[in-house]
Known about the structure:
The structure holds 2 protein chains of 2 kinds.
Chain A: H1 3-23, H2 44-51, H3 58-69, H4 80-84, H5 87-90, E1 100-102, E2 107-109, H6 111-121, H7 133-144, H8 160-171, H9 181-185, E3 192-193, E4 196-197, E5 208-210, E6 215-217, H10 219-229, H11 240-252, E7 263-264
Parallel strand pairs in A: 5-7
Antiparallel strand pairs in A: 1-2, 3-4, 5-6
Helix pairs in contact in A: 3-7, 6-7, 8-11
Chain B: H1 5-8, H2 11-26, H3 51-59, H4 66-69, H5 90-93, H6 96-105, H7 139-150
Amino acid sequence: MSAFGHQRLAVLSLCLAVWLLARQAPATELPAPERRSGYDFMSRETRAMQDDDTANPGMLWVKDGEALWNTKAGEASLACSDCHGDARVSMKGVAARYPAIDAALARPVTLEQRINICRTGQQKAPAFALEGANLLALSAYLGRQSRGLPIEVVIDEHGKPFFEAGREIFYRRQGQLNLSCAECHEDHWDKRLAGNPVTQANPTGYPLYRLEWQGLGSLERRLRNCLAGTRTQVYDFGSPEFVDLELFLMWRARGMKIETPAVRP
Amino acid sequence: MAIPLAFARDRRATRAMAVAMAILFLVAPGAAEAGDDNALPVSLTGSTGDPVRGRAIVVNRRVGLCLLCHSGPFPEERFQGDLAPDLGGVGGRLSEGQLRLRMVDSSRINPTTIMPAYYRTEGLTRVAPGYQGKPILTAAQIEDVVSFLLTLRK
């Protein structure tokens, strides 16, 4: 083939590639009536485990969280309850609004990060380790106070750029397997990945008890599983990228009911 | 096209990769290659793969990963995916070269496919440290899988 032929071929291929990309319809967000929780994809036994507080292993963490809520800590020798009173009243609906913008940091923070801000700022105690037992217990206890309430994260003009960054991550192909979150959770949520239901990735139940983990874990732990599964570099717990992605996922699940502490296979 | 680092150490594979890329270029849309369009007829290693090893790769969820998405005639494998067509009979539907191209980079046939390119390292984002610069399967593994898929005639 002549040099000209090669050049023309390259131009043609490029045009074709551009055309194919432009033609590709963007994955679209699921309309509210079609939004489904991971709960709907589970076996009857696993659902029963979540529904019954005496069988739900997540309740053990909730109990621990309740104890921590009432325990004085730090140089200030204050318990959460000293400032916030009865969590069943004061914390009702709070978890359903996170991530939320922290004015001082001028960016969204997760409920776990919010707890640590109180801990270091008010109680004058060292921050809890992210994904450690104490922080999971407290966030499970707070999440429990929103059980049955609809997710209502607010995206105002301060939150918009973070939300957009999260959305970008959701639709980006990544990792050695070159898959986006949306390709599994929007385009194939009705399918099975090696026998496991894929689900719509609605974060309704975190922190939750996963049978596979034999323990409680945060949404970020689940996201790390999905990233590792596609052989993608994982983000650190509490990293801005994770918080942005969580903000997007919670917004995407707005109106759905909080299940914390949920149970998943 | 840059030759991925992982191959730079292996002279034979580098040559195979160069051949593969040359062929990919020739069968790029727009080029009328006689007969077998959308195919990679030449072995990546220069030799024929082993179908027994190929089967082991296909059913291994950490190596081939195929059964995450596909199902197939593997009665001993309990959990198979349904995101992709059943592999049963695929060796009767597709030629050796067509199978090879689908393994090397199926986005050459369907740009929006979810099937990962098993022998491509460019154009990827945020690949985990242990996998950077490496294709999902080696040239020899691809040839083993192709040989095995050809036996699925049903």
